[in-house]
């Protein structure tokens, strides 16, 4: 097909090439098309020829980039044209639906340009009205090639397409909390801001989820968390360029660690799920529950000094002699002396 178009273009510079009495117009010169889907351009063919009863028109589509997307030429009832040909009556006009599919090498943001041109060939009718010959030149009596081989070339219509993705979203989270860091304290609320943007072409709604895990990977389900935006939030697609369109929403996650949260590092994962099947988006970040401050023990610790004093004040244990045995011993000694 591309080679055929080049042949058509080359024929424009040929001295024998003739301008066709047929002109082409389109209802669009640029448009958007969703990835994996199609768009339609309406082409109108008008003939200024008043000599021939019927004019055969052969249509050609060429992609200037060399990356061809699938195309179809169809009638107004969306039936494919046989051989990509239409017939125009004397001085008449016709309409063709030009279908372009964003397939093959076609991703969101891509642009591609197609050129549509046609070759025309009148049909000769004899005196009784019957078709005797088909030709590709004004000499219909002696030349019988079809319209595809004609040197009569119409003007060229150029249409540029931009590929869009139907549903997509993007989440941007702040680097720090509303407090200016990543510390969270047990039993207290901390806010973490984010922005959700509908980057898809169509309007969509969203669901929100938050999960907190400890450093060893355990689910900390007993923390209180809230995404800040209720499920079902609707955002307008990028196809709506009006001043009232709402493409983004700002929210603040609320994070409240349990009152008995163990000091350490925890990971918060924030996930946004589009309703219409696009991939999830979101972010994750670490928060820190700080530990308790522990006083250093020193030699000057008052508790230690008190303990030392108590140790020093304890009297040493001294052996004692019972008073009664001592008195008896003294009495016995006195008796023996009298004797």
Q: Give the radius of gyration.
A: 46 Å
Report how far the terminal alpha carbons are from each other.
Answer: 159 Å
Query: Beta-sheet strand percentage?
Result: 35-45%
> Secondary-structure element order, as H and E?
HEEEEEEEEEEEEEEEEEEEEHH
Q: Count of helices?
A: 3
Largest sheet: 6 strands, mixed
* The CATH C-level class name of the largest domain: Mainly Beta
Structural domain count: 2
**What global shape is seen?**
rod-shaped
CATH architecture of the largest domain: Sandwich
Determine the mean pLDDT. 83
Stretches where pLDDT is under 50 for at least 5 consecutive residues are 1-16, 294-299, 305-324
The fourth-level CATH homologous superfamily of the largest domain is: Immunoglobulins
Description:
This protein is mainly beta. The chain has two domains: 2-164, Immunoglobulin-like (Sandwich), CATH 2.60.40.10; 169-289, Immunoglobulin-like (Sandwich), CATH 2.60.40.10. Strand 19 (264-274) and strand 20 form a beta hairpin. The longest helix has 16 residues, at 323-338. 12% of the residues lie in helices and 41% in strands. The protein is rod-shaped.
Q: Tags for this entry?
A:
Immunoglobulin-like; mainly beta; 2 domains; 339 residues; 3 helices; 4-stranded antiparallel beta sheet; disordered N terminus; rod-shaped
Q: What's the short story on this structure?
A:
The chain is mainly β.
